[in-house]
Design a protein that fits this description.
By secondary structure, the protein is mainly α. The protein is built from five helices and no strands. Helix 2 packs antiparallel against helix 3.
């Protein structure tokens, strides 16, 4: 697909709106997670079972918060690429990212080929 037709197809989809909506959802979830974490610490003295359950809950909230921060970072990056005109191009090889991939994951930074290479490399590092 040539660059002009790819660009016009990207223009036909409101990726900015989708990304901004997802960002707003994640910010609400992050705020709720923060409040839940604070409430866990307000329950006062507890026995060891309560303390253990609270520790697990706090770890889960921390993991969720971290995952949401990562998603927000990807969304902010995609919004920046829309702003600077590089949205829809792989940040590694600079080839166009397929429209179907962008529709499924509008925050993606990589074309499918580069994503697969990245995952294989990551898998290889974990296996070593």
């Amino acid at each position: 697909m040539n660059q002009t037709s790819h660009k016009s197809k990207l223009d036909n989809h409101d990726f900015r709106s989708q990304l901004e909506q997802r960002r707003a959802e994640l910010l609400k979830v992050a705020e709720r997670t923060t409040l839940e974490g604070r409430e866990l610490g307000l329950d006062g003295p507890q026995d060891s079972a309560d303390s253990s359950a609270m520790s697990v809950s706090k770890e889960w909230l921390f993991a969720e918060s971290s995952r949401h921060r990562d998603s927000l970072r990807l969304i902010e990056s995609a919004l920046q690429r829309i702003q600077d005109g590089s949205f829809g191009k792989c940040v590694t090889c600079e080839e166009e990212i397929g429209l179907r991939r962008l529709l499924a994951l509008p925050w993606t930074q990589y074309c499918i080929e580069c994503q697969q290479k990245l995952e294989l490399r990551s898998y290889g590092e974990r296996a070593a």
